[in-house]
Here is the input.
Amino acid sequence: MNWDQIYRDMAFAPYKGDMAEHMKLRDALTTLFCFMQGQAKDYDVHDALGYLEQRFGNGVLIGCNMIRKALRIEDETARDQVCYEGISLIETYLRRNHSARVE
Here is the structure.
């Protein structure tokens, strides 16, 4: 999730900072979705949750904590349920505050 490095060399792009922030957010949300499908590692999820907490603060804290608890659940159906609830809380916060367009 190092989008700053990717957009660093774009000398003529006036919105490269905004594009990098958008790509970081998209990457973090995609990582959470991939975790529910079993395609992301725990450390990727921790990085994504850390970025979301850093960018949005207390608004996403409850959802992030739910997903962190889900990392320790061994039962797959229970883990998916807790992850779904956490991601739903994060998505609801983002939609209500118009912070980002979640697709």
